[in-house]
Each structure stands twice: as structure tokens, then as C-alpha cells.
């Protein structure tokens, strides 16, 4: 696929963006008119990190692309640096180069950590990935405390609260700048819904709220557009498939990986939305797991309006069907437990 085609994919927002005239004009930012923006990818040599780095290299809103990992980054950076797009690429390897990788970053994307394997839950990843996230966020608080942080490392329901606590301890926490990337849940919900509704997926929108694991993932198919009036049993099946999408890929790869490619795509889409928000594009709305007051839980995924400061507004859930209301109540205990587990880890260790 040619670079121009891939760039057009990135520009095709999966958000609930309102297509105003100024928005349409600004979405076509050329490199000459775009501000300088540095994006750092932490975990850039991994299964998600490499395709994510490639997709960010294709984004014309990025002027500097910083790739960091504990090993393998020089080769990935050399490879990607040969691509004839705007951004300058630099690779950094090992803890002693982490500060250099982060300095001056506008957005830090964190796909670092171990992937899921068959039989593993996201909670099984906790002990390894929680420690990785803690050390990376400690460095972020020191070297780029004002950056937007896009957390991909699982379990997101716990790693986002860990990051918040680490930033609080450092005195740098800004709830408007910390995001759990739940875009893959939205991407899956759109794809699966379009297939059942027999509509063009490019025009589909489905909000997904709650968290980012199992039953905490709640797609709001009652709010999906275009409306398809699918029967209840199909809505339930679509909900279950969206919730189990990660497991579907893990099992299909039979021990050789997790949802790395689709996650990289979703991560690139969300980072693109953050860049547009920073650059002043109006009405950029994406679902994300953020500090929230729309439920009694301290963190919750819902539609978020993005802007120059990160989160401009956390939007409400809107009207829910009876089935979705039941799902909302059912997910709260598990999500609450995951959030508390992250907070406890950050404050004990």
C-alpha cells in the first residue's frame, strides 16, 4: 500500500467528530502549516510498538518521532527513518537513554510490556506490566510532565490509575492529560456492527464505555449510527464479541501473539485525534478511559472532547437501553476492583 493511501486512512477519523467547514479544512494540515509536534513511543521495538511507530511516521502532524525500548530500538528507528515522510526519527535504547527519548514530547504513547498468550487474562499481565508502567511514568513526570500520555499497556483498567498515582506523587498530575486508549474496542464494535447491519463501516459510529477488559467493555449499540434496528439476540452477540475481541485474536494466533496490528492502528487513530486537539481542530471526540465523574467510579471510559489541553470535556453516557443499563451495573464491581488494584500497587511499591 502506498504511503499516500495509508495517510488517508489515518486522516479518516474513527471519532464522533462533527464535520464543520473549518474542521474539514484543518484536517488536511500540510507539514508546512502544522506546528512542531514530538511523539514518543515507549516499547517501540515490540509487537504493538513497531507497527504503531510505522503508522506515526506516516502521520503528517508529527515532526519528531522518538522511539524507545530496552532493546532493539536502533534497528527499528533506522528502518522507519528511511520512509519519506515529514518526521525525523530517533531511536533510544536502555534506561540511561529514556530521558533523552522523552524530553520535549507533546504526546507519549505507551505500548510497553508483555503481550497476552492463550489462557492469560489481562490481570495475569498485571505484575509485570504494572512495574514497567510505574518506572516509565516516573520518568515522564521528570522529563516531559506536560505531555499527553496515551496508555496502551494492559491491564488499562489498572495501569491508568497507577500512572495517575505516580504523577500525583511527583506533583505533576493533570487529569486532562492522562488517557487509557480504548479505541480498539470502538474499532471492533464498528467493524462487527457494520457486518451485521450490512452498512459501510466508514460511516459507522458506536460509542464504547466502561473499561478495557471483558465485561467492563460496554458498546452502546443503541446509539450506533446509522440505525439498523438489529434484534436483541444479535445485539447481545455483538456485545459479547466486542468484549472478547482480544481473546479471539490471541486464540487465532495460537500462542504466537496478541492483537498487535489492530491495536497499533487504534493507537495511531487515538494519537492522531490528540494531535488534532492540540493543534486546535474543533469538535474532536473519541472514547477514552479517563478520570471521570459521570459514574461513582474515579476512572471511566466514555466520549471525551479533545483540545489544546488534552481533555476539554468528558461527555455523559446518553440514553441507554435496558440491556446496556444492566451491563453498566454489572461492570462496575469489576472495574472498581481493577482501579483499586492499580492505586494500591502504586502506593505500596
Automatic annotation (TrEMBL):
GO terms for biological process: tricarboxylic acid cycle. GO terms for molecular function: L-malate dehydrogenase (NAD+) activity. It comes from Abeliophyllum distichum. It catalyses: (S)-malate + NAD(+) = oxaloacetate + NADH + H(+). NCBIfam families: MDH_euk_gproteo. Belongs to the LDH/MDH superfamily. MDH type 1 family. PROSITE patterns: MDH. The active site is at residue 212. Homodimer. Substrate binds at residues 116, 122, 154, 188. Residues 182-345 form the Lactate/malate dehydrogenase C-terminal domain. Its EC number is 1.1.1.37. This is Malate dehydrogenase. Residues 38-180 form the Lactate/malate dehydrogenase N-terminal domain. Keywords: NAD, Oxidoreductase, Tricarboxylic acid cycle. NAD(+) binds at residues 43-49, 69, 129, 152-154, 263.
